[in-house]
Write a structure and sequence with these properties.
globular
Length: 323
């Protein structure tokens, strides 16, 4: 079963399909969260209630994965003390601390700048992988591909706000810190999945981080009320997309190089913009959206081209040595 998963999740076409699906799901969170704020009557400046809302979302997502894991006949609590400690750290950092910085940062900057700053996740992931893994080094194609993807993010978010060269540590700075935390913890999660089932790693991470966000939000006076069929459906969808996207993403990281997977993150703001336009009634057929998608697609191609060149190089070397 393990070998079957490795074969499937290492296939380039399958990786591209699943990574794109994850980014599509995360991109759909943009308009869904906005609609959720409206449905639950959460004001833009009410950060505490946003923490509670996010906490409910991740607690539910974590529970869904743990129930699914239990349904396979395995024990949810069959972990050592050190493994539980590792999952506690992952949950508090990846789901808890990351979103604390993210929500505060987004609340103190424009949506345009926040989206672009959050795209630095890919750069952090690729750079960290370069120093942590011998087989995931930076090359010309990978650097060029990341730059193309970043240009795509800038294009899709292009607005007059972008021309205002201002920087606030509690705004753009916090979003960058959130991106760095996500990059570090994604690599940490990859390490944990070597010995712990991906469902357990993801489920506990979401549950623990969600509980932390909920308690923090409630402690700061946040509240989430107005539960209706519409608002409840919104929350359930967010939980489902989180459980599916994070679990699949961790599976991809488990069986592939960090750099090969992380570059797909550039698709998230593109999908977010397109889906926000579709569901929030904004203009969708803008030329810049098509240009952005082109840049991001080229960036992904360039980064993954590195993988093909390595395989060809290894094959050639093997052929020469056999002569």
């Amino acid at each position: 079963m393990q070998q079957s998963n490795r074969s499937r999740f290492s296939d380039p076409k399958f990786v591209a399909l699943i990574a794109t699906l994850c980014c599509l799901l995360w991109g759909s969170a943009y308009p869904t969260i906005k609609l959720g704020y409206l449905a639950f009557d959460i004001m833009p400046e009410d950060i505490a209630s946003k923490y509670v809302f996010a906490g409910y979302r991740f607690v539910l997502a974590g529970l869904l994965l743990l129930v699914l894991f239990r349904a396979t006949g395995k024990k949810v609590l069959s972990l050592s003390k050190s493994q539980l400690t590792s999952l506690l750290v992952l949950g508090l950092l990846q789901t808890g601390l990351q979103y604390i910085f993210f929500y505060v940062g987004v609340g103190n900057t424009t949506g345009v700048k926040g989206s672009i700053m959050n795209a630095t996740t890919t750069f952090f992931s690729v750079i960290l992988a370069h120093y942590l893994y011998k087989n995931d080094k930076l090359g010309k194609n990978k650097i060029f591909g990341c730059l193309l993807g970043f240009i795509g993010v800038i294009v899709v978010n292009f607005h007059t706000d972008l021309l205002e060269f201002s920087f606030s540590f509690k705004g753009e700075g916090f979003v960058i810190v959130a991106a760095l935390i996500f990059s570090i913890t994604a690599i940490y999660a990859k390490k944990l999945t070597a010995t712990i089932d991906v469902l357990l790693v993801t489920g506990y991470s979401l549950l623990i981080g969600g509980l932390a966000l909920t308690l923090l939000g409630l402690g700061l006076g946040g509240r989430v009320t107005h539960f209706t069929p519409e608002s409840t459906g919104n929350l359930i969808y967010l939980a489902l997309l989180s459980s599916a996207a994070f679990c699949l993403w961790n599976l991809l990281l488990k069986y592939n190089k960090v750099g090969q997977v992380s570059v797909y993150n550039f698709l998230i703001p593109v999908f977010g913009t397109l889906l926000s336009a579709l569901f929030l009634g904004e203009q969708i057929m803008e030329f810049k959206n098509l240009v952005a998608l082109l840049f991001v697609s080229l960036g992904i191609y360039m980064v993954n081209r590195t993988r093909k060149e390595v395989i060809v190089s290894q094959s050639s070397e093997a052929l020469r040595s056999s002569r």
